[in-house]
Design goal:
This protein has 33 helices and two strands. By secondary structure, the chain is mainly alpha-helical. Helix 7 runs antiparallel to helix 33 and helix 8 packs antiparallel against helix 9. The longest helix has 18 residues. The relative contact order is 0.07. About 9% of the residues have low confidence.
Length: 618
């Protein structure tokens, strides 16, 4: 494209010098002919028209003479300037041509693409998403008749940090599903709102896949921004280039201009791309550290390579593009900046293929608890670390201990290794991530009274990975009123008899949590699943001083969505109600309505896992 543009620019500049502007205009823009004048039946018209040589045979077709206007005859249109194009736009001068940007030249020459896809491959804007309903996604038409303002509020009002791992997993599934946009809402803007929430959740890969399901020609400003954020979180800098090519100069902000220059370099015109970056460096379009990173990245394209030294002195924070360009160029952000950066950067590091394994492991210890990484993904990551002889330190030792947790000779040795991994977690989230890491090792442990003390954590580890069948093996060893019993009472798929008040009182007496939070969550979960009678609910609610029947605007909305059997809307509203950085931010009333609504719309597995997680982590 670059060579074609340069050649055509040369032709544009040279032709006027050879033939003159008048000849050039006449060739490319011939004057419009006047409409044809059809001879009328009036006497004057008949006199002016020549008589036909031979009369037409009777009953045959009659040829009507047409008078063609002489090109250029008649007065010029009022206000038309000499040398103007038919649409009133003047032909640019040589100076104007030289000053034009590539996008402006493309527009002039008719080279600007209107889509990044061939006509036969363009996709419909109906049901945008990456998981179809038959692949595990939620029903595609579930939001089609919903109030678009309600849906947008549920998406935009969610800050992305949820207290529940299973709540995060459910919300991600809902956002990634192939869905019709609510009636009256632009499908591209609906996709943008979903992708933006996924970015806030730290789900960069899913957000990127979602925006890539829309052709660049259908992008709106909101979707363009969501796509930029998605590509920044995944450090996929050139992923935005098809959008940049189609959207062109619609934006003038610094981020867009820098990305256009980078894309120019990677599209074969590295010299022009680097020249644009140099010019923006002089304009201070971005901070110096960011411009140097952009130059280093763009310098990898073509032959215009240059040595760029990156110095972090004076840099006080990480920004999305600063982080993206750093890891994309093979550098590591300073540990001090990562430590105080928003948690989404740790999530991005956990799944970034270009990030060193040790740094990925550090991020994974936060990402797993959030719901971004599965137990299998965690095991795969630490298995890679175990295989690398050049990795030493904390995570190499952890990989060795993980191997012992799975393959040590005796159950006691395996239990010692599992407990060592759990106790090595420095924060509650890190400890829970290590429980997810050891979920399958916990499932291999025999049900033995010797491990009764570790039973609650073993059960929590298995439920964190969805291994409820394995966890239920411990039911005979779980005494009524213990933490192990409470988790299993919520996790079991069905229960033949309701939980009585005596069992709840026993659990309450053994509850060490602040303000009896675990007891509150147990009551809310059992009530939401319908596993406790009304009399016990009233009695225990009075003891805990809570009112599960209390109504708010949010509780009414999620109850109405459940009444309508709308899984997707319930999932979005459940995510809205589970925001926070810890289970101390969750109320028993909200948990009750979430579990109840999910259970009623057929998402009982998610309801059970969320309730059990609340008791385990509360």
């Amino acid at each position: 494209m670059g060579n074609q543009r340069n050649f055509l620019l040369f032709i544009l500049i040279s032709l006027p010098l050879v033939f003159g502007w008048d000849a050039l205009l006449t060739h490319f823009y011939p004057p419009k002919p006047k409409p044809a004048v059809v001879a009328s039946a009036s006497p004057s018209a008949a006199a002016a028209a020549p008589a036909p040589a031979d009369p037409a045979p009777a009953g045959g077709s009659v040829s009507v003479p047409v008078v063609q206007a002489v090109p250029g005859a008649g007065a010029a249109a009022p206000g038309a300037a000499a040398g103007a194009l038919p649409n009133g736009v003047k032909v640019p001068t040589l100076k104007e041509l030289e000053a034009m940007s590539p996008d402006e030249l493309d527009q002039l020459l008719g080279l600007k693409p209107h889509s990044d896809m061939p006509a036969a491959a363009r996709r419909s804007m109906a049901q945008v998403g990456v998981i179809a309903s038959y692949e595990g996604g939620l029903p595609s038409a579930s939001l089609g008749r919903q109030n678009p303002q309600l849906v947008k509020a549920a998406l935009d009002g969610n800050k992305g940090q949820l207290v529940s791992r299973w709540g995060h997993i459910l919300l991600r599934r809902a956002l990634a599903s192939r869905l019709d946009a609510p009636a009256g809402m632009n499908p591209a803007d609906f996709t943008a709102a979903r992708a933006a929430l996924l970015v806030r959740m730290g789900e960069g890969d899913v957000a990127r896949a979602l925006v890539q399901d829309v052709d660049a020609g259908n992008y709106t400003p909101a979707l363009t921004q969501a796509a930029m954020d998605s590509y920044a979180l995944t450090a996929d800098i050139t992923g935005i280039c098809p959008v940049v090519s189609v959207q062109g100069g619609v934006r003038k902000d610094a981020d867009w201009r820098v990305l256009r220059a980078i894309c120019t370099a990677f599209q074969g015109d590295s010299a022009a791309g680097m020249a644009q970056l140099d010019r923006m460096t002089g304009e201070n379009a971005w901070p110096r550290i960011d411009m140097l990173l952009a130059q280093k990245y763009a310098g990898a394209a073509g032959k215009a390579r240059r040595a760029v030294k990156i110095e972090w002195d004076g840099v006080k924070e990480l920004t999305p593009w600063r982080y993206a360009l750093t890891v994309a160029t093979g550098l590591e952000p300073p540990a001090a900046l990562m430590a105080k950066a928003p948690v989404r950067y740790s999530y991005a590091a956990a799944i970034g293929p270009m990030v060193p394994l040790a740094d990925r492991a550090a991020g994974a210890e936060r990402a797993a608890a959030a719901g971004i990484l599965s137990s299998a993904a965690m095991v795969d990551l630490f298995s890679q670390i175990y295989e690398q002889d050049d990795i030493s330190g904390t995570y190499a030792d952890l990989a060795d201990e993980l191997r012992s947790a799975y393959v040590a000779e005796t159950p006691q040795q395996r239990m010692t290794a599992i407990s060592g991994l759990w106790d090595g977690g420095k924060t509650p989230d890190t400890r829970y991530s290590r429980m997810i890491l050891t979920a399958y090792a916990a499932a291999r442990m025999p049900v033995d009274p010797a491990f009764a003390k570790q039973a609650p954590d073993l059960i929590a580890a298995m439920l964190a990975a969805g291994l409820d069948g394995n966890a239920l093996r411990w039911a005979p060893q779980a005494d009524v009123g213990t933490l192990a019993w409470g988790q299993l009472a919520l996790a079991q798929p069905a229960r033949s008899t309701p939980v009585d008040g005596g069992a709840l009182s026993s659990f309450y007496g053994n509850d060490p949590s602040d303000a009896y939070r675990k007891s509150r969550f147990l009551l809310a979960g059992l009530a939401g699943l319908g596993r406790i009678d009304q009399a016990a609910i009233q009695d225990f609610s009075g003891k805990l001083e809570i009112d599960l029947g209390r109504q708010t605007k949010w509780t009414r909305l999620i109850d109405q969505a459940a009444d309508a059997n709308n899984q997707t809307l319930v999932a979005l509203l459940a995510g809205l109600g589970m925001q926070g950085d810890g289970w101390d931010k969750m109320t028993s009333v909200y948990l009750y309505h979430i579990v109840s609504a999910l259970n009623r719309v057929g998402l009982s597995a998610e309801a059970r896992m969320i309730a059990a997680e609340a008791v385990a982590r509360g």
